[in-house]
């Protein structure tokens, strides 16, 4: 209730500033005043305060100068408008709740967090470490690769990311939960010469990507 009233007060403060600015055309000013009075009547209703009876321009009716029948009819119209607004707000809230539930139902139901501590593999050159999820029954990868570039010195090439090599596989939904097996696969690609033992400077190559090793878990 407090948050609802606070938002309404913020709206009223903003609209009041627009009205006092004197820059609005007459038609826009008239519509804005109607919006202000409608917001005030709605706020009074949800706070269980008295309903203020107004004329078509939003001005408060003077009971000393308005007949009882006119006051009654104006009260009926105002009550009907407030009730319609309450029903509209309730319907919008229900739609928001339904959309939120649908959104949660469509989002992945779980995720896999990976924290790479070290690569204990003597490669001798720079390498690329690729980690991904694999379905062994369908013989296909079901996620994108998490890539870490590893230097020949045994450390990440981006030294600032040392001890901070983390990834979250979030593209896992209800379909993945039904899979019989999901393997976590790590591939190592050597980046450098064609042959590690090639010491001939004339034939020396560099920057070539060559498969070096692969490993995986039975299931996750």
UniProtKB/TrEMBL annotation:
GO terms for cellular component: cytoplasm; plasma membrane. Residues 2-205 form the Dedicator of cytokinesis N-terminal domain. One of its GO terms (molecular function) is guanyl-nucleotide exchange factor activity. InterPro entries: DOCK, DOCK_N, DOCK_N_sub1. It comes from the Eukaryota. It holds the Pfam family DOCK_N. GO terms for biological process: cell migration; myoblast fusion; small GTPase-mediated signal transduction. PANTHER family: DEDICATOR OF CYTOKINESIS, DEDICATOR OF CYTOKINESIS PROTEIN 1. This is DOCK1 protein. It comes from Nothoprocta pentlandii.
